[in-house]
Amino acid sequence: MIFSYEMINLLCVAKYSEQDSKMFQPFKKKRKVDPMEDLLNLAIEDLVEKWISYTKSTRFKISVPLSENIDIFAEPLVEFFKNRYMTLYQFSGSIFWYTVSKAILVSKTHPQAEINFAILQLNTKYG
Question: Are 104 and 69 spatial neighbours (Cβ–Cβ below 8 Å)?
Fold first, then answer.
């Protein structure tokens, strides 16, 4: 097989890039492991799946505001969250609402402005 100049150049660049990344590996800044952050990210991922499933299986009238839809979704999740993520829940009750809000934002099922408005309404309701 005959390689063109461009292919040889690409192979050389890729090989040296790989070697450089291995050579400087010990000098790279290592990320500090925060178990609470990891647990929070796990909870968010868990709720993203639940929210997407909920939005696909539940149909509301257009007149029902998103804040009410989120409130209905969150009601049974409080117990789930307490059981599955007790450490987070004990840390702060507002972590639950943060996790729900973040999960809905990450799921991208609704525009961010609509989600922000719904969160504001729920914040006013539950203070």
Answer: no
**DSSP helix/strand/coil, 34:** coil
Residues in the chain: 127
Tell whether pTM > 0.90: no
The Cα 56–Cα 70 span in angstroms is 14
CA 106 to chain centre: 5
- Cα–Cα distances (Å) from 18 to 12, 30, 63, 120, in that order, read 10, 19, 56, 48
Reported as a single tens digit per residue, the pLDDT across 60-78 is 788 889 999 999 999 999 8
- For residues 90 and 38, the answer to whether their CB atoms sit within 8 Å is no
Residue 74, in any domain of the structure: yes
**Residue 17 to residue 3: CA distance in whole angstroms:** 20
Quote the CA–CA distance of 96 and 74 in Å, as a whole number: 9
Extract the tokens encoding 113. Answer: 């402005």
d(CA 21, CA 32): 20
Q: Is 97 helix (H, G, I), strand (E, B) or coil?
A: helix
Task: Give the chain's domain count.
Answer: 1
| Domain of residue 65, residue span | 35-126
CB atoms under 10 Å from CB of 93, counted, come to 13
